[in-house]
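Proteins fold reproducibly. Look at a sample protein:
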Amino acid sequence: MNVKVEALDQHKVSVGIELPAEVVQKGFKRAVSRIANQVRIPGFRKGKASRKILEMHFGKEAIEAEAKDIVINEAVDAALRQEKLIPVTAPDVKEDKFSEAEGAAFTATFVKRPEVELGEYKGLEAEKASPEITDDQVMAQLKGAAEQNARLEKAEEGTELKKGDFAVIDFKGTIDGKPFEGGEGKTYPLEIGSQSFIPGFEDQLEGHKAGDDVTVKVTFPENYFVDALKGKEAEFEVHISDVKRKQLPELNDDFAKSISQFETMDELKAAVKQQMQLQAFQQAEEAYHEALVNQAVANAKVDVPQEMVEQRIDEIVNEMKLNMESRNTTMEEYLKNIGQTMEQLRKNYEKMAAEQVRQGLVLETIADKENLTVTNEDLSMEIYSMAHQFNADPNDVMKIIKDENRVGMLVNSVLRKKAAAFIYGAAKKAEADKKEAEEAKAEDKAEEAPKAEEAPKAEEKKDNFESMTVKDLKAYAAEKGIALESKAKKAEIIETIRQAESK
């Protein structure tokens, strides 16, 4: 097989492949065998029909097409491995010849995976927050819980509507004097200030009381989800039948009992604070990890092909579709509600998709350089995690992944996570080593300084422990099987070693 690679632009390449006649001949033989084993021909056992018989039944073109599929696919795969090229688009194959007598010649054109020039990704440093949850933050959380558990009670007669109140209304809307679909409702509980109605609607109800009739004039937004109503001026006749206000529960022991398993408010506060503190620590850790990965990505050089960005956008859109299907809605309905086209939606995600592709390429390159691999155990843990996240059976998750040919995507996802974990570990290790080295250096100076003025004692002439660093002493002790206290100072380490060796 002769292979010639030609760069068409920064990302696109063409791979010219030439094959001898014998390779094509073997391809035809395999094609005949494959077809013969897939079909039943009267008078012949399965797999025993000759090429001539198959050509009579299915035509020479069918045999040739099968042979091409076998020969070309295998040749392209072999050429890619040989040249260490990874396509990110399906190869576009153009044949020059395909003959049992003359061999084959064809060209495969595709966009290749870009080269990544890694920068520094070990020993990175990033600020790691140490958040402390205050009592005020805890109380804010509990007040939010009280809001969620508030009761709606009828306001006193004559109460004027204000933000936060609920107006129970009957309404009927018209455009140019004509009613329109969805413009009428009865006994609708509308929270003033919630902005759940058309902009300006709720504002015009403020200051009114139960029993009032109000004419509300509004203009539908240009991005309204109903095309026929976009930008239209509408008039609503509104009757306020009732005014209700939230009655917040008092933050006491009874409230604590009603929303939790705790008997007192103090116990609830302590539990909420602990939970908030844990969440804050987790968020700080995630932010720290994200900062380290972002540094590694920023330090690398890579030009991302637009084709890879489009592929990632495809994945994002497909994930959105699946999510919507699970909620019994469609992408078409979603686009209608937000007033956007599919083109606009894809444009919105272009920057994010490009950043994700870039990060993925860098992490995959780090994984390759550090010889990181994905084990079956890694995949099982990832599947279990996904199943737990979506409250699904792990076997069902695995089936979906296999059915949708997403095993490769799963492997790459786990590999990128392992590369990210490598960055975290390398950063932490670098910091720890630096700190240990500084402490050891300080200990050496502190222990050795006074010794310089003293005459060496007889027992000190027997070894050179005093000239060794703490790290070397620990290594020596480990080699001799001498146990040391983890936080032992240099002098203590030397004394422990000498005592052990004197026995």
In short: The chain has 15 helices and nine strands. The longest strand covers residues 233-247. The domain at 2-111 is CATH 3.30.70.1050 (Alpha-Beta Plaits). The chain has a mean pLDDT of 86.
